[in-house]
Amino acid sequence: MNYRTENIKRLIVDKPLRLDCGQTISDFPLAYETYGELNKNRSNAILVFHALTGDQFISGINPITKREGWWDTAVGPRRAIDTDKYFVICANVLGGCMGTYGPKDLNQKTNEPYGLNFPVITIKDMVSAQESLLDFFKIEKLLCVLGGSMGGMQLLQFCASFPDRTFSAVPIACSSSHSAQNIALNELARQAIMADPEWKKGGYGKTKNLPKNGLAVARMAGHISYLSESGLQEKFGRKLQEKANYEFSFDADFQVESYLRHQGYSFVERFDANSYLYITRAMDYFDLSKQYKNGLTEAFRGQKTKFLVISFSSDWLYPTKHSKDIVIALNASGANVAFSEIKTDKGHDSFLVNEPKFLITIKNFIDSSFEAYKK
Amino acid sequence: MKREFEIIADLLPDNSRVLDVGCGDGTLMKFLSEKKNIDVRGLELNEENVEICISKGLSVIEGNAETELGQFPDKSFDYVVLSQTLQAFYNPVSVLDHLLRIGKASVVSIPNFGYWKVRAHLLYFGRMPRTKSLPYKWYNTPNLHMCTIKDFYELCDSKNINMKKIVGINNNRISFINNNNIKLKNLLSEVGIFLIS
Q1: What is the ipTM of this complex?
Q2: Suppose A298 and one of A245, A284, A292, B135 were both cysteines; which one would form an S-S bond, judging by CB atoms 3.0 to 4.6 Å apart?
Q3: How far is B170 from chain A (nearest CA, A)?
Q4: Pairing mode, if any, of strands A306-312 and A336-342?
C-alpha cells in the first residue's frame, strides 16, 4: 500500500510521550485533517475520534482511497455536525496506517518497517498523542468530542485524562471496558492474520506479498459483528448471487457471501495487517475502571463536561448495557449526563449509516451545547 | 405551563439540584433551569420525549424509573420530583423509597381519586371515572395503583415520612392541606402535591 503523502497533514509531536508499555517515543508524526474554520474565540472546535478501521478523513472524498470519508453521513456542510458552523478535527490514531506513527513506518536503525518491533500501544497512548493537536491549534477547550466504537473509548479516556479540555462529549456505541466477547472476536481476527503464511511474523514489509487473505478474513469477521441479525436478514436473506440455483460448489452462491468477500478484499487495499493487530490489542487492553483505585466513578469524578451517551438497540458488539454502565458511573460521580438508546436494526454500524434519529439527536445536542458554551 | 408545575417550581429553592423523574418533554425542567437557576436532570421512559429534551439542551436519561433509580447515589440531589406517575408503577412504595433515598426531600404529586367528580362519576354512572386528570378507559389506563390524597397521607404517616407541605389544586386554585381539613380537601382537590422527606 503506497500512497502519495502530500495529501496528508502531519504534526510532528516533539513532546516525549511515555507509553503505557514503558517505552518513550518522541518526534513522531501524527496525521490529521480538519474541516470548517476555527472561529475567533476558538469556541467552535470539535474533535472526532475514529474507530478501529477509520482514519482522519471523515468528510468528503478521502484523497488517498478516493472513497467517501467514513463519517460523511454526519459531518459536512449543513450536516448534523455542520462544518459551515464548526471546526472539526480528526487524527489518525497512534499505531494506524494513514500517516501517523505505526508499525509500517521505517525503523531508522534497521531501515526496515517496524512490524512487530513497534511498541504495543494503548487507548490512553492514542489519546495522549492527540492532545498535542489542541495545543497546536491553541484550543484551550473544545466545544465537543465525539467518537463511536473505539472512538468512544478514546473519548472516555480523553475526558478522564483531560477533564478540562472539552465542554461536551458524545460517546457512541462503546464501552468503558472491553468484554470477553469483544476480546474473543478481536483474537479471531488476529489469528486469521497470523495464520496467513505471508504475514511472516509481521515481517511482510520486506517482501512484496502481503497477508491479504488473513486480513480479509479478519475484516469479514469484524463486519459480521457490526451488523444485526435482522439487518442482515432484511438486506440479504437467502438471496442468491446472480444465479437461479445452487451451484453445489464453494463459490459465493449467496449474496451475503459475495458481500462479505467484497468487504474483506476491498479492505486490504487500504489497511495494514500489523496496524490491525496493534489497534485491536489496544482495544482489548482498554479498561478505564482499572486505571483508578475506586473504579469508573473515580475516573469521572469532578467532571464539568456535559455528556450525551448513545447506544443502538440492535448493537450486540457494544450493547446498550455497556453504555448504561457508563451512564451509571457518570451519575454516581455527579456528572451531567443524558442518555438515549436509538431504536434501529442497523446494529453497531448504525452511527456510520444514515440513521435519521441518531443524526438529529447529535445535531440537537451539539447545537444546544454551542449555545450554552457561547454564554 | 400547567398550574401544577408552577406550584412544584415554587416549592423548589433557587440554585438547588433537582432530579425530575418522568420528566416528559422537559417543560418543568426548562422552567427550573432558566427561571430558578436550578441544576436539573431528568429520567424519562419515552424516547421521543428524551429526544425533545436533548434538543432543549436538557440532560435527560432514557430509562425506566421502576428499575433504574438504583443508579442514583444516596442524597445526590436536593429534591426529587415525581409528577402524577407514582400510581403507574408496579411497586409504588419501592419507588417512593428510592425518591427519598436519592433526594434530601421529594415532591410527589398524585391525581386524587377522592375528588368529588371522580366519586360522583362512579356513583351516578356506575362506570370507571374519567376526568381531566384521569382521561383513560379502564382497559388502557397506565394507572395501576390509584389512590386518594388521604390514602397517600396515611401511607406517608405509616412510613414515618415527614410531610412538610401538602397542596391541593382545584380548578387552578390552590389550598394547603393539613390533618384538620384533609377530609374536605380530599373531596375538593383534583391533584395533591406533597413535599416530603
Answers
A1: 0.91
A2: A292
A3: 35
A4: parallel
